[in-house]
Structures are given as structure tokens and as C-alpha cells.
Amino acid sequence: MKAVVAPQEPEAAEVILRRCRECGVEPRFATRDAEVESMCGDGRLRVRLRTARDVYAGVCLALRGRHQLTNAAVAVALAESLAEDSFHITREHVVAGLEAAEHAGRLELDARRTPALLLDGAHNPAGARALRAYLDEFAGGKVTLVFGAMRDKALAEIGAILFPAAEHLVLTEPRNPRAASVAELLRAVPARSASSTIALAPSSRDALTIARAHTPPGGTVCVTGSLYLVGEVKGLLETGGENF
d(Cα 36, Cα 237) in Å, to the nearest integer? Predict the structure, then answer.
């Protein structure tokens, strides 16, 4: 049995290697020789990855965000490992996969809309940090954040990461019994929030309407905090046409 492992800090790598030995698993670490060559636009990266087997240069990753460089390295290591085990996976297959991969609700951008709409189901601090990094680098500061989350999440920590990035903040409740109320979400707003307006919306439909009204044409409406909320919004978009 084999395991593909993302690049790790030395302490973490030591634990992983020890566990692999205990379980009789052969570890394969993804390459650290990975770099961004340029930007393809809207947060997608043109990257270069060098492995022991090949060099993948000029690959424009379909998935957005700088954290996708590590994910791409893991995907390449997995594909190469399978190819060595007689799976028919060519270099062309690897490149095509990296340039076509889709992950609904994860930095999913619809730039055809005015304002642009970004869907990201970040529901933990790590996901929130990845989204915040993307917003800081690519959203240009004109961000309206539509946020709804489950009450068992780290609301204050996630809010501290994301809410300062929003010029306007719209808090709402996904249709789920575990959803935090807007009152609970409001308590997660940092005392010195950078948002110029904070609105409370009883539904995702109302939240979208408010968000669009507050966002200039060159801005971005970002829906986040829960994959349940993202799913609701995607359903509204599919049935609501240009009303949203």
C-alpha cells in the first residue's frame, strides 16, 4: 500500500513517516519544487512543478487560490504513482486534469454577473484563511460578504478572519436546523469591524438581494460560511435567472 503526502513541516513529516512504518505503508511525498510562473487571471495560477519523473511547466490550474499549488503537487504525485502501477495515465492526462478540474463551491467565480459572484463554502478557520488570501489579492477591496454558518463552527475565529475583508456584510441563515441565527452571527462580528454596513437577512434570497444592492458593478459578492448556504444560493441562481 502507498500513501501520497503533501509537503510537511519536519515535525509533522516525522509523525507521518512513523505511522506509515507502523502500518506497512510506502509514503510518497509530493514535490516541493513547485512555483507560480504567472497569473492566468481571476486567481488562477500558471505553475511549474518538477518531479523525479517529469517537469510540468506552463500549466494553468483550473482551481483558484495560491493554496492550489500544493494541491496540484499532491495530484501530480498521485497520478505518477498510479502510472507506475500500470494505470494508463500519461503526462497529457495529468496536464489536462490540472487545467480542467472543478470543485463546486470552492472559490467558484462567476465573473459574467454584475457584480461578480464568488461562492466558497469555507466553514473552518483554514478555509477562511484561504478565502481571505484570495479576496485580499484579487477582489480589489469592493467585497460584499454574504455569510451564514452552522452554530457548531468556530464562528468568532472565522468572523475575525473574513469579516474585515468586507466593505458590506450581510448575515443570513441557511435552511438547516443546525444553522446559527443571525443574532449568533452578529455576536461573531469583531468589535472594530471594517464593514461600513452590516445587514441581517432572514433568507439567502433576501441576502442576495441586499448584497447586490450594496455592491458596485466592479465589486464582488462573496457567499461563504457554509456549503449549505452555497448550495441554496446555487439553487436560486439556477431558477432565478438574471434576477440574481
Answer: 33
Backbone angles phi, psi at 154, to 5 degrees: -80, 75
Query: What pLDDT, in 10s, does the model give residues 2-17?
Result: 999 999 999 999 999 9
Could you tell me how far CA 30 lies from the centroid of its own chain? 21
Which residue type, as a one-letter code, is found at position 165? A
Burial label, 6 (beta-carbon count in 10 A; 0-12, 13-18, 19+): middle
Q: Which of 14, 19, 50 is nearest to 32 (CA)?
A: 50
Three-state DSSP class for residue 15: helix
Residue 104: exposed, middle, or buried by beta-carbon count in 10 A (0-12, 13-18, 19+)? exposed
**Side-chain half-sphere of 133: how many Cα atoms within 13 Å?**
13
Buried b (16+ CB within 10 A) or exposed e, 157-166: ebbbbbbbbb
Q: What is the DSSP letter of 163?
A: G
Check whether residue 220 and residue 128 sit in a common domain: yes
- CATH number where 160 lies: 3.90.190.20
Let me know whether 166 and 77 are in one domain. no
How many domains is the chain built from?
Answer: 2
* Residues 38-69 pLDDT 10s: 988 788 999 999 999 999 999 999 999 999 99
pTM of the predicted model as reported, rounded to 2 decimal places: 0.90
Q: Note whether 201 and 171 are within 8 A (CB).
A: yes
Domain end residue (candidates: 100, 129, 150): 100
